[in-house]
Amino acid sequence: MDLRVAEVISAEKLEDSDKLIKLDVNLGQETRQIVAGIAKKYAAEELIGKKIVIVYNLEPRTLRGVESQGMLLAAHDSDGNPVLLVPEKEVPAGIKVT
Length: 98
Description:
Number of strands: 10
Helix content: under 10%
């Protein structure tokens, strides 16, 4: 599994879903689009500029007509809400997580 740090450069809630957000993420040498089911906990605007961890080497999938080119990593708190996994310190976008 290839995990990488990505920086969210844009985010928008999908109109036809109450859970899905479309994210454009910077991976240093490239930009990818990811769709994630985190809209009930996170507003799209608060994600911009945030560093997240993604699964880099997944085959693209289409969710609600939008291609997702990876998957962000999140845990769930005791109430079942998603909690993004983020680097503890500043690291460059695109760096591998080991």
